[in-house]
Design brief:
By secondary structure, this protein is of the alpha/beta class. The protein has helices at 10-18, 26-36, 51-64, 82-95, 113-120, 130-138, 155-160, 164-173, 189-198, 229-239, 252-264, 278-290, 300-303, 323-330, 351-361, 418-421, 439-442, 453-474, 478-494, and strands at 41-44, 75-78, 103-106, 125-128, 149-152, 179-184, 203-206, 217-223, 245-248, 269-272, 295-298, 313-316, 340-346, 366-367. The chain is globular and about 60 Å long.
Length: 496
């Protein structure tokens, strides 16, 4: 089957071909015709099966059939994480490149002003996380009274993350008469109840879960601080017999930074992502296939259409927040009976992602502890395991904060306290110990030690006296003067 058999417009088919799509996946083959017919759809599929295209392409086609005055929001796509929201918006932009439709994405954790400005220009399709959507609607900054299509993506993840109440609130502010597309990997009781009350005579499209990686793929894990990831990558490329490697970055900016850093070290590399022209993408891919460059750095969106038969190494420079995405990434190596190696970098802020990935794999990933850039920022201590089991970190309590904040991909549910949605600690992480003080401060001499104690103390107190004197001059009341006279005396009594 081809995309031409699904009834899509030539303009959309052309955009799909330019993105590297050749044949539809099972979820696309089942969902696209049903969406085009205006039917409700229940899609049961894991991330990485192509479901974004399964609902995006037919939505673009349905809305392009007619123009509506005022450009109201006619399609709403609700997703649990910021990263997924951005990816869906990028896909809509790519698939609808030849159509006169406008889309926007809104999510929490950032300023709302640019998002509000985009909404004010008029939006046909809105991609949103639940919290920010309800927030802007509550402020009267967006309206959904003319909505025609509603998509709930990753419904089971929204349940796990505490968004199910927000979803129910969203359902109360959208029109009752609409087409609803519901996608979930699993069907727990609460999701089943929601489906029964929301969908009307839906077309059910079910795809088997993503299979585990083949045994031919060797997986390796490196614990490394964020600041040292690029250094470690350069070290591996300079010391290991790596002919070619596909590197996955979470963001477009990150992909550019990685490629530029490798180039400065004399390592042939190029980045491909949604902001690159099709010509640049094709040139980079061609150079990679023939060996003119060793490293191709890509985002998940850009890498979906890549066809690379012989790919010996895949690197997860950033761990994905969706475990199935990891499986999809590493599955690009070890094909056709060939050996393949999948490498993963893990910083302190990614320990929870690692835990979920290993839970999906049903086994820990082999840890490579002997490398020149071990994790130092948080002083992670590796604990021994029984024979045959790799070492891995474990922790007694709360995950420490890294020196640079990691990109948060999920926003906090509206009006739900963090303690209500906090995950229970994993027993296998029960012995991880962290020293959150900066490494450079642990052996720094005390500036107040020795004979300089009195001098340093005098310097610290001097500015406070000047501020107090200034205040007493500008407000010469008796009470102020009394307090100013006595403040140094009180301070001296408290000073050891």
């Amino acid at each position: 089957m081809t995309f031409e058999n699904l009834g899509l417009l030539d303009s959309i088919l052309d955009a799909l071909h330019r993105q590297g799509y050749t044949a539809p996946t099972p979820i696309q083959a089942g969902a696209i015709p049903a969406v085009l017919q205006g039917r409700d759809v229940l899609g049961l599929a894991q991330t990485g099966t192509g479901k974004t295209c399964a609902f995006s392409a037919p939505i673009l086609q349905r809305l392009s059939g007619r123009q509506v005055s005022g450009r109201p929001i006619r399609a709403l796509i609700v997703t649990p994480t910021r990263e997924l929201a951005i990816q869906i918006h990028e896909s809509l932009t790519a698939y609808g490149a030849n159509l006169p439709l406008r889309s926007a994405v809104i999510f929490g954790g950032v300023g709302q002003a640019p998002q509000v400005q985009a909404l004010q220009k008029g939006v046909d399709i809105l991609v949103a996380t639940p919290g920010r959507l309800l927030d802007l609607h509550g402020q009267g900054l967006l309206h959904l009274d003319r909505l025609e299509i509603l998509v709930l993506d990753e419904a089971d993840r929204m349940l796990d993350m505490g968004f199910i109440h927000d979803v129910r609130r969203i359902l109360k502010i959208v029109p009752e008469q609409k087409q609803t597309l519901f996608f979930s990997a699993t069907m727990p009781p609460e999701i089943t109840e929601l489906v029964d009350s929301l969908l009307h005579d839906p077309v059910r499209v079910e795809v088997n879960p993503v299979s585990s990686p083949v045994e031919l793929i060797t997986q390796k894990l490196y614990y490394v601080d964020k600041a040292n990831k690029l250094k470690l990558l350069c070290h591996l490329l300079q010391t290991e017999p790596i002919e070619s490697m596909l590197v996955f970055s979470r963001t477009k900016h990150g992909a550019n930074r990685i490629a530029e850093g490798l180039q400065k070290k004399g390592i042939g590399a190029a980045a491909i992502h949604g902001n690159k022209s099709q010509t640049a993408r094709q040139r980079a891919l061609a150079d990679f296939k023939v060996g003119r460059i060793r490293v191709l750095v890509a985002t998940d969106i850009a890498a979906r259409g890549l066809d690379i038969a012989a790919l010996p190494y895949v690197l997860n420079y950033d761990l994905p927040d969706v475990p199935e995405t990891y499986v999809h990434r590493i599955g690009r190596t070890g094909r056709a009976g060939r050996d393949g190696t999948a490498i993963a970098f893990c910083e302190a802020a990614e320990l929870s992602e690692l835990r979920q990935i290993e839970k999906l794999l049903k086994k820990p990933i082999e840890v490579v502890a002997d490398h020149p850039y071990p994790m130092q920022q948080t002083a992670v201590k590796m604990v021994s395991r029984p024979a045959g089991q790799p070492a891995r970190p474990s922790k007694p309590g709360r995950k420490p904060k890294a020196s640079t904040p990691a990109p948060e991909t999920a926003e906090r549910p509206a009006r739900i306290k963090p303690k209500d949605i906090r995950r229970k600690p994993d027993p296998q992480f029960s012995s991880l110990h962290f020293d959150t003080s900066p490494i450079e401060d642990r052996h720094r001499p005390n500036p107040l030690a020795g004979d300089r104690v009195m001098d340093a103390t005098a310097r610290l107190l001097a500015p406070r006296r000047r501020v107090t004197d200034h205040k007493s001059e500008t407000a010469p009341s008796k009470s102020d003067a009394h307090r100013a006279d006595h403040k140094p005396r009180r301070r001296r009594r408290r000073t050891p």
